[in-house]
Amino acid sequence: MRQRRYLYNQRLKEKARKLRKEPTPAERKLWQVLRKRQFQGIKFQRQIPIGSYIVDFCAFDPKVVIEIDGDSHYTPKAQRADKKRDRFFKKLGFRVFRFTNQEILKNLEGVLEYLKFHLP
Questions:
Q1: Sheet order of strands, 53-60 included
Q2: Shortest CA distance to 98 belongs to which of 57, 52, 51?
Q3: Which of 13, 64, 102, 117 lies most in the core, judged by the most C-beta atoms within 10 Å?
Q4: Alpha carbon distance 91, 93 (integer Å)
Q5: Left (φ > 0), alpha (ψ -120 to 50) or beta: where does 62 sit?
């Protein structure tokens, strides 16, 4: 399935480009596994604008969003915002997976096993 044009937010293009150039250590580590269809043959993209959000990793077939949460995601305000984001993506038919920086950096194999088990 191709990315639907109505999902792409042109106004976030430059911000997404900047985020791709400056990944966090956790994003860099996970990307090394997801890129070039290395994981389950799925084509993942990184830092993709969808609606008014930029997702860390996205696949359109199957519809999957992977978010990596740093420390800033644990305030009550940020948790409410994350729930709102997740509802938005779920309404579009995406399955949303969230992992912490520490899970990616210290237990990447466990994260990948979890994804293998839960991906359609």
A1: 44-50, 53-60, 63-69, 95-100
A2: 57
A3: 64
A4: 5
A5: beta
Distance CA 76, CA 98 (A): 16
Q: What is the dihedral of CA 104, 116, 109, 33, to 10 degrees?
A: -70
Q: Which CATH class is domain 5-115?
A: alpha beta
**Residue written as tokens 């389950």?**
40
Distances (CA, A) of 60 to 7, 23, 80: 11, 21, 25
Task: Give the global pTM.
Answer: 0.90
Q: What element of type H or E holds 19?
A: helix 13-21
- What's the whole-number mean pLDDT along residues 6-32? 90
